[in-house]
């Protein structure tokens, strides 16, 4: 007598969480994001306190994102060709070793600004290396129908890290200084590596097994994106957002210290506000069924984030600043979740890794340029004016992307994107 089939959960998010492969990968992403957010903020605060320079504070984010356009095309191809589990383990080993070196320099009182820039560049390189592998693994594990729910859960883990990391930063820096904070960072890095080695099993992907030249692979991804107006609109908005909106996050410590006159603990709380907003937005999307117009949520989220960046810098009160940043975080949840969904659903299976790599190139190309420009303007005209002018420019640049592409008018599926663009998948 056959046993009755197990009832399927009514909520899509619970069905995704029943998958053991996804749960393990989700745990790793949560730990990694917690550690990454805390480490970046600790190093940013260290640079601000030692140099008292908003420009050098901005350079922390610049060096953190410089590796993206250099490594991401290759990491996308790697995700399509080799074991993604090995990629994740290798990236975590490099990250843990770098954190150990920085901790030793801090304990020996030999830390210099260039050490920080090198460390955050290594962090950015490993992030660029592992991101396409981890994101495409999510799609292969859960399938296209549950992708938005899985990415929303991934976004929730990111936002937990974005909240908890800054809060732990403030508490640990005030309680035990930079040494105590960085010991905690190293412990989390090593715990993440342990989970990767002992608990994660990633199934073999659907990527290309050919060994064509790297530049041909990259060219095919770019060609596909250029002939898909949906992807083209999404990638254009991605560049604008990462150049003109998201660099504002790096200057929150300067706004908190110099304009709101608060210390490390409350600065950490301000940085965590965006994470709170992202959590609220991601929870809503995690329980959403059958999303079809991913681009609409993507655009609305972009506008919310830009408006938040334009306004929070002028707030004279800590509470109001916190609320504005939280609203911006809700927008970032829609932007981040739908950005990955459009990229992966808008490409055939054998190109998903490369398309995620191309997306990372667009992110990495915009952020360093925008951060340098905001930092230079901040040094000359003040941080609030530089951030708000850039955010307003981002709103203006979004108009042609929305009007000239079908990003808000057409549902997103891989079949429709390929057919309507007239491009055959390789």
Folded structure, characterized:
The chain has 426 residues and is mostly helical. It has one domain: MFS general substrate transporter like domains (Growth Hormone, Chain: A, Up-down Bundle). The chain contains 16 helices and no strands. It has helices at residues 12-17, 20-51, 54-65, 67-81, 84-107, 113-142, 147-199, 214-226, 229-244, 252-258, 264-286, 294-312, 318-345, 352-381, 383-404, 414-421. Helix 2 crosses helix 7, helix 3 (54-65) packs antiparallel against helix 14 (352-381) and helix 5 runs antiparallel to helix 6 (113-142). It is globular, with a radius of gyration of 21 Å. The chain starts with 11 loop residues before the first helix and ends in a 5-residue tail after the last helix. Residues 1-5 and 414-426 have low confidence and may be disordered.
Give a quick precis of the structure.
The protein is mainly α and 426 residues long.
Topology diagram in text:
Elements (H helix, E strand, L loop, with lengths): L11 H6 L2 H32 L2 H12 L1 H15 L2 H24 L5 H30 L4 H53 L14 H13 L2 H16 L7 H7 L5 H23 L7 H19 L5 H28 L6 H30 L1 H22 L9 H8 L5
Helix pairs in contact: 2-3, 2-6, 2-7, 3-6, 3-14, 4-6, 4-14, 5-6, 5-7, 6-14, 7-11, 7-13, 9-12, 9-14, 9-15, 10-11, 11-13, 12-13, 12-15, 13-14, 14-15
């Amino acid at each position: 007598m056959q046993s009755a089939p197990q009832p399927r959960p009514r909520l899509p998010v619970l069905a995704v969480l029943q998958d053991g492969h996804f749960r393990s990968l989700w745990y790793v992403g949560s730990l990694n994001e917690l550690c990454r957010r805390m480490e970046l903020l600790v190093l940013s605060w260290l640079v601000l306190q030692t140099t008292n320079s908003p420009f050098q504070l901005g350079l922390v984010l610049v060096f953190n994102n410089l590796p993206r356009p250099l490594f991401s095309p290759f990491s996308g191809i790697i995700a399509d060709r080799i074991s993604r589990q090995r990629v994740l383990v290798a990236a975590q080993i490099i990250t843990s070793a770098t954190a150990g070196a920085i901790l030793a320099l801090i304990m020996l009182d030999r830390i210099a600004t260039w050490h920080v820039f090198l460390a955050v560049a290594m962090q950015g390189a490993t992030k660029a290396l592992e991101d396409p592998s981890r994101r495409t693994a999510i799609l292969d594990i859960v399938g296209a129908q549950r992708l938005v729910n899985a990415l929303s859960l991934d976004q929730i883990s990111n936002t937990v890290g974005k909240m908890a990391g800054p809060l732990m930063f403030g508490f640990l820096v005030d309680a035990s200084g930079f040494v105590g904070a960085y010991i905690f960072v190293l412990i989390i890095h090593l715990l993440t590596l342990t989970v990767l080695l002992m608990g994660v099993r990633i199934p073999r992907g659907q990527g290309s097994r050919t060994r064509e030249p790297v530049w041909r692979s990259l060219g095919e991804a770019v060609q596909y994106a250029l002939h898909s107006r949906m992807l083209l609109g999404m990638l254009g908005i991605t560049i604008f957002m990462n150049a003109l909106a998201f660099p504002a996050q790096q200057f929150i410590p300067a706004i908190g210290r110099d304009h709101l006159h608060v210390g490390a603990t409350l600065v950490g709380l301000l940085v965590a506000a965006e994470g709170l907003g992202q959590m609220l937005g991601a929870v809503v999307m995690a329980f959403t069924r059958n999303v079809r117009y991913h681009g609409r949520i993507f655009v609305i989220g972009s506008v919310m984030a830009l408006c938040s960046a334009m306004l929070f810098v002028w707030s004279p009160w800590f509470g109001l600043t916190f609320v504005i940043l939280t609203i911006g975080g809700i927008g970032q949840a829609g932007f981040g979740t739908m950005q990955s969904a459009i990229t992966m659903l808008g490409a055939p299976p054998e190109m998903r890794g490369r398309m995620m790599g191309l997306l990372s190139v667009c992110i990495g190309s915009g952020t360093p340029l925008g951060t340098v420009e905001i930092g230079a303007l901040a040094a000359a005209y003040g941080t609030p004016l530089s951030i708000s002018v850039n955010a307003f420019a981002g709103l203006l640049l979004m108009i042609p992307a929305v009007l000239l592409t079908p990003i808000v008018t057409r549902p997103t599926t891989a079949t429709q994107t390929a057919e309507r663009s007239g491009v055959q998948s390789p």
